[in-house]
Amino acid sequence: MLGRLVAGLGAGILVAGTAQAADLPVAPEPIDYVRVCDAFGAGFYYIPGTDTCISVRGRVRTEYRFFDSELASHSRDYSSTQLRARGYIYMDSRTNTEFGLLRAYNEVRLTLDSPGATNLSLEHAFVQFGGFTFGRTQSFYDFLEYTTFAFAWVPSVDDTKTTAAAYTFAFGNGFSSTLALETSEERRSGIGGYTPGYGGTKYPDLVANVRIDQGWGTAQVMGALHQVWPGYDAAGTTPGSELGWVAGAGVSFNLPFAAGASVNFQGSYSQGAVDYVSSQPTSPSGDVFDAYLDAAGDLELTNAWSLSGGFEFDLTTTVGINVMAGYLDYRNDAFADGDFKNYDLQGNLTWSPVAGLLMGVEVDYRYVDTASALYEDGSVWAADFRVQRSF
Question: What residue spans of 76-188 are helical by DSSP H?
Fold first, then answer.
């Protein structure tokens, strides 16, 4: 009897011990919280489990525009009233490596211009590794960012996204130089008097710049080679190709008397590469070409040059003003009736009552001057109201 009692008591103690062991708290798995990455500025955080920092941002922009034109090329089919809604998505990932910075950047835009359909555009999609850049990005020829100054249209400066393969040499003290191969299709303005127009791509554009970035501002000299490559003509009159070129320079000075104040200038001259001089020139006929076919059946390259300048500054912590003026001269000896000049003037006033919100009004004016007997001079102007939220 005593033996059975002792055995039962031992079994009870064993069961109780087992139950208490089962009730002990289990250590939770470690949680990899999202951590702020301050190595690349505000808005970056570490991707959990990696040493890569990423920033995901966006923007919504709406604009209400009214255009008026005296040019015959702007017929009744030209929309004088335009409403725009545009959404932006920005994704920027960066990792410091033993070879330098590894970066991947994407910018996608969805745009609806009424009347019209929704347009999806890939503005940026590039990889940077050390000094290399591969993918779609801003052309390395470009200097002034026209969007700083103008809402409605591009003044007499260039602004082009292109697919490139480039290397940037950093020399220290703010000095750098970039050599790039860029797609030539992004820069084609056509061949006048030749029905096949441009052919396929033979060579990419060769672009180079030398740049300095310091406390007083930024300066750059740049140049590019652009092949004018005609398409095949079955009639047997295919002209030979010509090598177009462009050279330019720009400077931006930071002004000490107001916050965010700067004054900017840029000039370019080209033969056979009009798009490098101005992305959106306006001709009386509506046609702009890199070259014309002359009476001998050869290509005559177009000569074009532009000069632009502007300033920006903040009147208060919430109110800013931007003003820009530009001039473009376009001519070709093979078709003098196509020669024209553009005179540009833009100005806007912006208000940012809270961080991330911008509201602004703008007036744009362009006068188109031609010596041609075929076309008349005329003016184009626009009024624009913008609301923009960045986050």
Answer: none
Distance CA 99, CA 362 (A): 46
Q: What is the pLDDT of residues 223-253, one digit of tens each?
A: 999 999 999 998 888 999 999 999 999 999 9
3-state secondary structure of 42: coil
- Give dist(CA 3, CA 236) in Å, integer: 118
| Distance in angstroms (rounded) separating the CA atoms of residues 193 and 205 | 24
Reduced to 3 states, what is the DSSP secondary structure of residue 185?
Answer: helix
Buried/exposed code over 309-338 (b: 16+ C-beta within 10 A; e: otherwise):
bbbbbeeeeeebbbebbbbbbbebebbeeb
The CATH superfamily assigned to 53-390 is: Porin (2.40.160.10)
**44-85 residue pLDDT tens:** 999 998 999 999 999 999 999 998 888 877 766 667 888 999
Structural domain spans, the chain: 53-390
Q: Name the token pair of 145.
A: 């960012």
Q: Kindly give the residue spans of alpha helices, DSSP state H, lying in the chain.
A: 2-23, 274-277
The CB-side HSE value for 43 (13 A sphere, CA atoms) comes to 11
Let me know: does 89 contact 117? Beta carbons within 8 Å: no
Residues 6+ apart with CB under 8 A from 122: 106, 107, 108, 136
Distance between CA atoms of residues 178 and 343, nearest Å = 32
